[in-house]
Amino acid sequence: MKLRRSFFARSVHEVAPELVGATLLVDGVGGKIVEVEAYDHEDPAAHTYGGPTARNASMFGPPGHAYVYRSYGVHWCLNFVCETGSAALIRALQPIVGTETMAARRGTTEPRLLAAGPGRLTQALGLTGEHDGLPLDRPPFELYAAGVTKIAVGTRIGITKAAEVPWRYGEAGSPYLSRPISPRPRS
């Protein structure tokens, strides 16, 4: 079942774990989402915490759109906008479709290194700032609902503010995670 924008019109804390196991394709290239992090409107680590800016404008727009930003001036990162000011960062996926294209974009044929981490993922999928603000239920994006997936929950990584909150969700035991998550199933 294709995911529509209405799927995202709720709390990021409901949406983020439900994205684990979903299929993400960009121009027909992608795979299964295996890791996400939630950032909500009251979160000091969220880009929206200080209010609207030109950079974070997509996060204040309607749910079900992409928020793509450059991290530390180096890597693009993909987020799915949920309720106002909240988004799920897509951290990793298991490459399934268009792996040759991903390998060419990434300069490696090692499956685990194609899309494990937000910067690798966007490079493998060919995402840039041009994709910021685009609806997730229209080309170039395709999103399909997850099947039954055992989810591990852990703390977010790569941040300094509110790093202790357990808002990182991943497919338990997946070798495609950016970093392992302690095997603590979500209740």
Task: Give a written overview of the molecule.
By secondary structure, the protein is of the alpha+beta class. The protein is built from 4 helices and 8 strands. The protein has helices spanning 12-19, 99-106, 111-114, 118-125, and strands at 23-26, 29-39, 66-71, 75-81, 87-97, 141-144, 151-154, 168-171. Strands 1, 2, 3, 4, 5, 6, 7 and 8 form an 8-stranded antiparallel β-sheet that branches. Helix 2 (99-106) packs across helix 4 (118-125).
Keyphrases for this structure?
187 residues, alpha+beta, 3-methyladenine DNA Glycosylase, Chain A, 8-stranded antiparallel β-sheet, 15% helix, globular
Provide the β-strand percentage band. Answer: 25-35%
CATH superfamily: Methylpurine-DNA glycosylase (MPG)
SSE succession: HEEEEEHHHEEE
> Radius of gyration over alpha carbons?
15 Å
CATH topology: 3-methyladenine DNA Glycosylase, Chain A
What is the class in the CATH system?
Alpha Beta
Tell the overall outline. Answer: globular
Mean pLDDT: 88
* Low-pLDDT residue intervals, each spanning 5 or more residues: none
> What kind of sheet is the major sheet?
8 strands, antiparallel
Summed up, the domain count is 1
C-alpha end-to-end distance: 25 Å
Structural class estimated from helices and strands: alpha+beta
In total, how many beta strands?
8
CATH architecture group name: Roll
